[in-house]
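ok here's Glutamine synthetase type III, seq below lol
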Amino acid sequence: MSQEARINRIIDGYNRPRRVVEFPKKNGTPLYTSEFFGENVFSLKTMAKCLPKPVYQQFVKQLRGRQVMDKNTTDSVAHAVRIWAMDRGVTHFTHWFQPQTGSTAEKHDSFLNINTTFGSNGGEIYHLDTFSGSQLLQSEPDASSFPSGGMRSTFEARGYTVWDTTSPMFIQPGPHGTSILYIPSIFISYNGEALDEKTVLLRSSEALSKAAVDLLKLIDSDPSDERPRVTHVYTTLGVEQEFFLIDRGLYSLRPDLKITGRTLVGRLPPKHQQMEDHYFGRMPTKVLSAISEAELELIKLGVPIKTRHNEVAPSQFEMAPIFEEATIAVDHNLLTMDVLHKVAHNHKLKVLYHEKPFKGVNGSGKHCNWSLSTNHGENLLDPTSTPETNYRFLLFLVAILNAVHTHSGLLRAGIASASNDHRLGANEAPPGIVSVFLGEHLTEILNAIEESRKIKTSEPHIESIKVGGTILDMKISTLSEILRDLTDRNRTSPFAFTGNKFEFRAVGSKQSPSFPITLLNSAVASSIHEVMEALLNQKGDKPSLTDDDKLFVIRKFITKTKNIRFEGDNYSENWVKEAEIRGLPNIRKSPEAFGKLLDPVNADMLIKNGIFSKSELHSRYHILLEKYVKDILIEARTLESIVKTQILPIAYEFRKSLAEGIKSLESACGKDHTEPERNIIEITTPIVVDLQKYTDSITTMLKEIGKIDDPYKQAEHTETNLLPLMEDVRSRVDSLEELISDKLWPFPKYNELLFY
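and the structure came out like this:
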């Protein structure tokens, strides 16, 4: 029966009709993507058409000046967006927010309203389509049902979602040809505490902007400097999203995938990723069709999707956008995940965002490419062709190095989760040691500055390829000149400089980028203040800083942060040993990482900069601990159920059938002819006995963990004792999968899930 269900699902996958989606056309001619980019977004361009000019100008002024919206402007925007939305089939609106669940949340309200008037002829009811400024600005979801870490009691339900004016409203399809207006929002409690991921991200962006503007004002104070004055610095972000796409029918036959997002049992097939032929290979037709449809939807939503390709593991893929302001980039990443999920269902596929859905093949990350840009579009992390004299770049660079050096534990906490623990340090993602890769060229520049010497310009010998400056000469006359980047890329580094940005590679694929980027922004803002203090001390009573003053401070921070820089293989055991000698923490598991949030060096910085209040920070710590424990307990209970109700009964049936076969063969042919069957029973029996024993131990341990009151001790006990026990169970189940007849096995196997 189990084999029959699997085969039927596979056949259904091959026989299902192909889904066809029409590419947007005009008069039969395909449109350029730029012609319908953002057509479902109430962008500034759209607002300029829909609003009276004075109102639009006032909105832009308030938006760019980070001022509170006045009532007249808000009412006008609300009226304009309602008309614009309803003309496109919108019937409902929702304040779309990011609670601390790792996903998004929404509550739909209709534009329909009722106005009742009473007169001498009795009551009369008018049905109106209305949307006021107050409805646009604020809504009230139940705050008691979201994670709050103790800041909210279950009987204190009031919370508020508030329109984030920096992120544009957009439309998404609803049921039966209707649509829904989405209003990006923050989520706070009745008392104003942040209950979401976005509020703290906005705070950190403002803190970093203020610090960066102050630093630029200090170092660019030379009257001969003709550059325009910087009034705002934006954190920019490009989020590379990795994921798996598998057949939805087969997914439905895997209770572990459905409940936990990962396979709790399952053996690797003989061929998986070891041939290295999937990476950048030809995308399967059904996958390309699904991703193309998702791209169409995302283009309409103003998400600048740029790249799609196969990843390393079979059935693993990646999509990546063009850089945007960080707060909008986070919204767009969460929107990308949501659209992919919906579109995959239309193609009878299932998207998996878990960091490690399949044991033994690469997991998925969310590489966050982070940089700083002024309001004039200048990238502050662009080294230019002469980084050694670009003191503006070098000062921001050493400030970032200092941030990572001082707050490495905090950055590790930002990417910690039960699911990401399976991926970090597994020769596919950076280990729990946070370090920075700069590349050979920048490393030499920093070393030369530190040692007060000239930069070494000799190029390394590279076999048959001659490297001259930044040009690669391949000795092929038909090729144009090949420009070489200033730095190579180090895919093993958790925080790598990649030319004009840093790539934070350790972020998990399932999590929102908000929290890790909030912590990074905050650490850099604090570090910039430290650099400024050193500059001011060096400046003294002089009217402005000299180049020697700047070099003195740059040299000071180069020396201070040298231990955090590493140019080698972060996956190697030698690096683990070297990092220990350098005094760098190696935080292997999440419970320890979460504790870094409350370390005084981190907690004081976050509270002082106004990113978190003390209660918000402590609540965040408790929420993360609680989620960690719940995630593993759900996995353990799922595994316990699978083994007791499916694996063990099948193992008993298999042994019984072997025993009956042995008995029958003995009667017909004699005992000598039953040796193969007896050998299988002898191998299987101790595995079944161990499996039963370890599964019973999980049952007992779940009861023990339930009696522990202290959240940290509960998390520690779960990580130290329950996870190894689950691995013991898994290893026995995987051994049985190799022995038990395929027609009896209850679940789709890896070779069926990973290969189309």
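fwiw The mean pLDDT is 90. kinda neat tbh
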